[in-house]
Amino acid sequence: MKKGWLTNNVANILDIIMVIGTIFLAFLVLTGFIPIDATSKEVIFYVFGALMAIVTSIYNYHRGSSQGSKDKTDLMDNRTNEAINSKVIEMVSADFNKNSSVNIDDKNDEDNRDTKIDKTLEEF
């Protein structure tokens, strides 16, 4: 099953929202749009510190080894799937050629072989 654009990009969208939100909050606090009195000062700094920790984690993920590891895993999965598909096609073609007395170049035989390949791939 093919994943949609949103499914593939939801984590990146959330990361962007967190970074922009943190920068916007810092701007509001530093420019005085959000007044800070003595009682709320520590709470605001605590929340801002937690948000900065999240932004730092996001930055480290995208610039660090986690993203590279994810990319490698995706690449290995793609190559594994390609190898499995290639082997299935090879096995089905060999089986079809062994059991078929008609030349494989015939259009009907190619359609039958392709249908058998598709059914075999669906089983995986």
List the helices and strands and how they pair.
Elements (H helix, E strand, L loop, with lengths): L4 H27 L9 H23 L1 H35 L7 H17 L1
Helix pairs in contact: 1-2, 2-3, 3-4
Task: Identify the notable features of this structure and list them briefly.
124 residues; mainly alpha; 4 helices; 82% helix; 0% strand; rod-shaped
Description:
The mean pLDDT is 76. The chain is mainly alpha-helical and 124 residues long. It is rod-shaped. The chain has two domains: 63 residues; 52 residues.
Provide the number of structural domains.
2
Biggest beta sheet summary: none
Class computed from helices, strands and strand pairing: mainly alpha
Number of extended strands: 0
How much is the radius of gyration in Å?
Answer: 28 Å
What is the helix tally?
4
Uncertain residue segments: none
| SSE order, one letter for each helix or strand | HHHH
Shape: rod-shaped
Percent strand: under 5%
Describe the structure concisely.
This protein has 124 residues and is mainly α. Helices cover 82% and strands 0% of the residues. The protein has 4 helices and no strands.
